[in-house]
Amino acid sequence: MTDKLKIKNKEIAVPGEVLAEGMGFVPSKGISRENDKLVAEQVGMIGIEGKVIKLISLRGVYIPKAGDKIIAKVIDVLMTGWRLDIRGPYSAVLSMKDATSDFIQRGADLTQYFALGDYVLTKITNVTSQKLVDVTMKGPGLRKLKGGRILKVNSHKVPRVIGKDGSMVVMIKQATGCNILVGQNGWIWLDGEPKQEVIAEKAIKKIESEAHLSGLTDRIKDFLEKQTKKKITVEGGKNEKN
Known about the structure:
By secondary structure, the protein is α+β, with helices and mostly antiparallel strands. The chain has helices at 96-99, 158-162, 167-176, 194-209, 216-228, and strands at 4-5, 12-13, 18-21, 26-27, 31-34, 37-40, 44-49, 52-57, 69-77, 81-85, 92-95, 119-127, 133-136, 143-145, 149-152, 179-182, 187-191.
């Protein structure tokens, strides 16, 4: 039988999907062989390297989409912009024109704007069919994040961290006085007094671990009141995604 691929590189596979036919292909973790077929065992993004077919698990991984406001980390300075880690299966590119309105001469030192390791609050403008992700720094509140600390939570738990109409984040801000920015990709920036940052971090981690349980708002309210010795009012706020 002739070897035949049934899926393209960087496409998303689902459990039970036939990825290839023929004995010439080599499966990796997450892919099983059933007779002459390779079958996906879990949801994942396909990586094809010659005859080796890899499956990158997407369980809990952030899948970027246009319009999302995210927190990203600069991992490479390019000739015409920056490459960013967005906590997903692929990185993003921030071009000079989307980074600033300044005129930047060819060959200029781009680290004067964003250096390796910098975190930024940015917005996804486009995700192509080839999984190329473009972002922009032009928009209300989009900026480089200075000071504070970065937390990681499962991106699928972000709506619970934010709360209805931003109520959960508002409550944590009210209790700790911290400035909090929640990226849709599950990176969260906290900035406040060190002791209050710790309390805010514990509250956010508690939300993440108990997101599936009912009565979460009341439990977080009680937790924050015990930690801060403050009386807290639970109320809805404006959407705090950014």
